[in-house]
Amino acid sequence: MAMHQDDKRRRGFSIPYPRFEESKKALVSRAGLQALLHIFDSTDLGEEFRKCLPEEGSNRSCGNYELGLLLIASLLSGHDSIDDLEEFDDDELLDSLFGGKVPTAKTMGNFLRRFEPRHIEELKRFLTKMGYTLRNHTRGVHPHKGEKIPYFKMDGTCHEQHGRQMEGCGWMKTSSDKSVYGYASLTIFDELGFCYAGELLPAAHPKGRPAELLDQVLSPLRGKKIENTFEKVAHISGDSAYLIEEVLRVCLSHHTTFTIAAPKTINWHQFVDSSSCSWVSWDYSQEELQKLHKKKQSPTECYVARWHWSPGWSEGKLKFPVVIKKQWRADEVFGESCGYFHYHAVATNQDLSQKSYQSVIEDYRPRADVENMIKEFKIGFDAKHLPCLKMSANEVYFLFVLMAQNLIRWAALLEQPDKPHFSKKIRRKLITAPAQLLVGGRQLTLRVKSKFLKEVSLFLYGSADRVRKIHWTGCRM
Predict the structure, then answer these.
(1) Cβ(325)–Cβ(345) under 8 Å?
(2) How many Cβ atoms sit within 10 Å of the Cβ of residue 53?
(3) Is the confidence at residue 401, as pLDDT, over 60?
(4) Where do the structural domains in the chain lie, given as residue ranges?
(5) Whose CA is closest to 386, among 179, 162, 127?
(6) At 317, phi and psi to the nearest 5?
């Protein structure tokens, strides 16, 4: 390679040649991992998690509880599959935390395959308890975060796979009419971003059991329903796939309100052109007008109307209002003069004598946030691809992903409640950092950079200038 002769542009700058030497000191690259694992292990979460695990298998190197925590550590670190566990081989911190017993990918696969159906059901119920625990703690630390009652959003997605021998995989249609080979999943998140329930579904049954999953999430609120008979305990939102008898019966039995997109199969679209349809103009807020002004756009024509729907299964005993929104959409080529009206309908059981039609549409809008949480576990934790041939093992792995996602979300809300970051930045700020490990006198010490110490201290203790014992209140199951 020719040497640079012209030094005018380089200004004498060059990368110095390094000299490599072997270090005798223990160095780690994930200094913040211990903090999250310690919180999980030392509170009621760890004890309840232990009860969901199968009995000890033939593996002699690690117990099931250790393997479970190690898989959570792997997902918190950003590993894409169980094969990435080999990155822990030379990690002195993981060796110290787990007694030098870092298993192989084969051992972790055997651990996932040991879960029986009853263990998987217990793990699903634990996920619900975990969601409420982290929600209560977060709102205790930051009372302004979240709504008075939980806002649950349910949605499904596809997990495209490439292994032809994977159990349960098959071809299925997505919402955009694209054919995908793989699994489906159904999840329920709240407005803070915590996951309360999830299930991995075979391609033969991609819709799953939304009513049973919703009943599992709402059951812990039964006490509130009894104490306050006339107050709603939660709000449910979903797309048109969930406007079905089973879901509506669960919502009504648990004393919740709902806003669910209404499909055209209930024939609301026949009402919009009838003479009995009375349209009310949309009232643009000052914030909306300012946003349009910044984009140099003017408010479009927008109206709302109400229609009553009586489900066939109720035999005329029930009627739900369906709020229909009509908004003008300009043609991309010819502009405002040419275009069409776009219609969108939302079914609800809210009292419209106390609320406007427009507020029902606005209550439905936050449902779209669930797409960000689905994107988070599919990309941030690579749950788009699953590691095992056996479907039950893949479902267990998927539930572990959702648990790790909850821990990351909880850390993000405590660290920066108004604008919580997603997993990529939280890992960089709170988990991935070089440190020197010191072990002695029954004490584990990590020497880190001052900036990282400040971030972790703010997250754990709320103050960077003092360190005290963790008292994590509000986490009783």
Answers:
(1) yes
(2) 19
(3) yes
(4) 26-117+389-461, 146-378
(5) 162
(6) -85, -20
Q: What one-letter code names the amino acid at 251? A: C
CATH number of 146-378: 3.90.350.10
Which structure tokens are listed for 340?
């069409």
Residues 193 and 169: beta-carbon distance below 8 Å = no
Give pTM, 2 decimals. Answer: 0.89
Contact call for residues 363 and 235 (beta carbons, < 8 A): yes
The tokens for 409 are: 């979300």
pLDDT band at 461 (very low <50, low <70, confident <90, very high): low
Q: Which two tokens stand for residue 406?
A: 């909850």
- In DSSP terms, 437 is beta-bridged to 26, 446
CA 209/CA 240 separation, integer angstroms = 15
Long-range contacts of 61-68 (CB under 8 A, 24+ apart): 61/101, 61/103, 61/107, 62/98, 62/101, 62/103, 62/107, 64/111, 64/114, 66/98, 66/101, 67/103, 67/107, 67/108, 67/111, 68/111, 68/400
Region at 270 (left for phi over 0; alpha for psi -120 to 50; beta for the rest): alpha
Q: Is 29 helix (H, G, I), strand (E, B) or coil?
A: coil
CA distance 238 to 35: 35
What are the helix (H) ranges across 377-422? Answer: 391-415
Specify whether the CB–CB gap between 404 and 377 falls below 8 A: no
Amino acid at 422: F
Per-residue pLDDT tens over the stretch 287-336: 888 988 888 888 889 999 999 999 999 888 999 999 999 999 887 777 67
Element (H, E) at 362: helix 357-364
- Strand ranges across the sheet with 435-440: 26-28, 435-440, 443-447
Distance CA 86, CA 322 (A): 54
Strand-pair category, 257-261 with 235-238: parallel
